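Quick review question:
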């Protein structure tokens, strides 16, 4: 992605690129792909929307900028906006990547840039380097990955309130062992940033799955660290991570994760060879327990990842 600092007028003039076809991989999936979403189901041609963008493609707070004067970083509060009709947005050939259950939130793209829709507000995303902890890997991953590499078969995962979004890409992590960051999108602020990155960590260290808590306050995710599967939690308000349970087992995560209203998390995991399980992480007296139930069928890792 080329994240140039451009005004709304330039955006309207330049973002007329067609949406490229999404790459299709030939392997079994735990998560079914959804058919393309019609832009008319997201944008009303006759409605008016507030279309906004940051003045810079890389943003942070003033205090962070003061400490990093050599970096080309814009103030996170510097934005410009204009009212546009839905018909104008449709003319930009934006394509929806995902829509929340109630239809109030959506993630859109023109094939190069990412945009969020939250009610009547549409924002072009900027990368918040401060919230990413200054991660070089995260910025490089976001700036140079095509859309189909940012999003996996899981599609877009929305928080219950629609404000936050995730694009977990479990199969890509398994196939390429890339140590890729877990990125969070804030539709209210028009920002994307890394909530967990793996700069300077050993190989085979990466996240697998991710989902929001029912109250939209946390992101729960699984990761492999030191050959052990861990369940972790990110506090969105505080910007902090914690490990809630280290299983002590060398297991990998597959696409597919859910959480119920009681905080019980279920997900697909495997031993990386042929045995696969449904795992359950359940809260008990402030801690989490871990159980796994073996699936009756075996699936070869090489088949799932498309390797010969």
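Suggested answer, residue by residue:
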């Amino acid at each position: 992605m080329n994240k140039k600092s451009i005004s709304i007028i330039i955006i309207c003039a330049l973002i007329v690129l067609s949406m490229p076809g999404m790459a299709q991989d030939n392997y079994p999936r735990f998560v079914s792909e959804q058919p393309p979403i019609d832009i008319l189901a997201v944008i009303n041609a006759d409605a008016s929307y507030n279309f906004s963008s940051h003045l810079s493609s890389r943003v942070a707070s003033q205090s962070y900028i003061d400490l990093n004067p050599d970096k080309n970083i814009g103030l996170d509060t510097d934005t410009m906006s204009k009212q546009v009709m839905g018909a104008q947005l449709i003319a930009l050939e934006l394509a929806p990547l995902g829509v929340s259950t109630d239809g109030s939130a959506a993630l859109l793209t023109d094939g190069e840039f990412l945009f969020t829709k939250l009610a009547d507000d549409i924002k072009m995303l900027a990368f918040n380097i401060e919230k990413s902890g200054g991660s070089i890997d995260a910025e490089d991953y976001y700036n140079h990955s095509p859309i189909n590499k940012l999003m996996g078969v899981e599609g877009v995962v929305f928080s219950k309130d629609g404000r936050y979004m995730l694009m977990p890409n479990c199969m890509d992590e398994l196939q390429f062992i890339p140590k890729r960051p877990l990125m969070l999108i804030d539709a209210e602020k028009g920002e994307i940033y890394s909530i967990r990155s793996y700069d300077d960590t050993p190989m085979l260290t990466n996240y697998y799955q991710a989902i929001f808590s029912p109250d939209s306050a946390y992101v729960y995710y699984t990761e492999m660290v030191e050959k052990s599967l861990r369940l972790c939690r990110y506090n969105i308000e505080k910007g902090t991570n914690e490990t809630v349970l280290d299983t002590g087992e060398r297991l990998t995560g597959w696409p597919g994760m859910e959480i119920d209203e009681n905080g019980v998390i279920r997900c697909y995991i495997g031993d990386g060879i042929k045995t696969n399980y449904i795992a359950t992480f359940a809260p008990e007296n402030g801690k989490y327990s871990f159980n796994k139930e073996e699936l009756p069928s075996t699936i070869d890792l090489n088949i799932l990842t498309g390797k010969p």
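Why it works: The two ends are 30 Å apart (CA to CA). Residues 22 and 148 are 6 Å apart (CA to CA).
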